[in-house]
Amino acid sequence: MSLKHHRTLILDTLVQASFMPSADEAMTEGIISLAKVLSQLGTRTGPVILAVGMHVRAFFDHKDDALRTASFALFGTLAGCLRKRWHTWYKTQVRQSWAALLLHLQDPNKEVAKECRRAVGLCCPYLGLRRVQGVLAFYVQGSGEVRVNALLRDLCRHLVKEKPALLEGLCYRTRRYYTSSWPEIRAAAINFTGITLEYSSPGTTRWLNIAHLQSSLRSLEKDSSPPVQVVATQVLEAISKSPWGRVQSPNEHHGRTLPRIFSGFCFGCLRPCTN
Asked: Where does the pLDDT of residue 207 fall: very low under 50, low under 70, confident under 90, or very high at 90 and above?
């Protein structure tokens, strides 16, 4: 029996053990084992790897901390060892996962946040935008604490000029986290929306439904978490003072941006920033 056949059998077994519905502990162990095998054997069995990449994203928001940690670790492992022939496919996976990766840098569990940071660093090359890749690498590959607010500002500053379509998709996916089970992630998602608007204008974000956004934020002002209430109110107030709050025609106030009301706060935690 060839080595390639053995490799395929091993990976198929691990994939079934990891992603078939079972106890959280069993799935976590399977994903951890799968990451180890992939890092040792490489990624020559392409179809299996493609299946793994799609399945593992489903656990990024799982309630179990260990399973979330293992999932981000596996996603980063795939990004780090994929052959070039699969890069185009994985670029799609990375872009579809970008909201989760950025928001979970502020995951309430420190181990999850740490593994997410590693995954973001390994996924940078798949964005295909050098300036954006440079921004992400600068913030997540350093030795200190990630200055997430600064990271997101730089990210939005480049995306609104270079790739508004990517920013649009990122913004839409971030808003899905307004209903996250973690208040830290809900607050982080709202804060990111504010930062997105801060660097945009009606002329560059015609896709943004401000009325729908305001409705969502008003609901979040009644959230069970006080920090979520605070940041929702801040973004609503900023919108009311921005071009979106008083624009009379699509081109009026073009180029003006949202007031910078978020610069004094750490991403998602809403306390005075110290770094």
From this structure: low
